[in-house]
Specification:
about 200 residues, about 10% strand, five-stranded antiparallel β-sheet, alpha+beta
């Protein structure tokens, strides 16, 4: 019987899958529906390939010095598959979106505040009311038909909670979380639009 002394390199695909899951979970709200579905399918294929490579590595290094890495790869993949299924149902993406794009949102609000009632009210980019302090709602790009439309509400006064009467003027049946994502930003959703 010949002993295999061949050194097997650690597969890179599980780490690529982990990075892709993290990026997807944090940024999926900015994707359009077609891109979202394409990325979802590509992620699934990448996950299958990463799982195959990790299991193959696991099988060949179970008794060797790389056994610890094998278990770590299996644990990483388990966490990644769980995150791929469950993290998009949490508010992680909303927090990341507010943090990354806060400068962009604040610039848009500054432009709108100078000429309210602005052109924003009837566009797909944002919805605004003409009250003080200004409320501006930025819907996310991803919008699955017949579901709630999620987005970020900017309130110029960070000490003020969103007033339901003003939210209803922006988009009928609009609800926001009680706690802000950041100083001026609230995660909100619309189940129907005011006429």
């Amino acid at each position: 019987m010949t002993l295999l002394t061949e050194k097997r390199p650690l597969p890179k695909s599980p780490f690529i899958f982990a990075a892709a899951v993290l990026g997807f979970s944090a940024l999926y709200v900015q994707m359009h529906l077609a891109i979202f579905l394409l990325v979802l399918m590509l992620m699934f294929v990448l996950g299958l390939y990463a799982s195959y490579r990790a299991l193959k590595f696991f099988r060949h290094s179970f008794d060797g010095p790389l056994a610890g890495w094998s278990w770590a790869l299996i644990a990483l993949l388990t966490v990644c598959w769980a995150a791929w299924f469950y993290v998009p149902t949490t508010s992680l993406a909303e927090h990341v979106d507010a943090w990354i794009f806060q400068g962009h949102y604040e610039k848009e609000v500054a432009v709108l505040s100078s000429n309210l009632p602005g052109n924003c009210k009837k566009t797909d980019d944002c919805y605004a009311d003409d009250g003080k302090p200004v409320y501006v709602y930025f819907p996310y790009a991803l919008h699955v038909p017949f579901s709630e439309h999620h987005g970020i509400l900017y309130i110029a006064d960070p000490a003020q909670m969103p007033e339901q009467a003003r939210l209803d003027k922006i988009g009928g049946m609009m609800k926001c979380q009680d706690q802000p994502l950041l100083k001026h930003f609230y995660a909100c959703f619309i189940t129907g639009y005011a006429g």
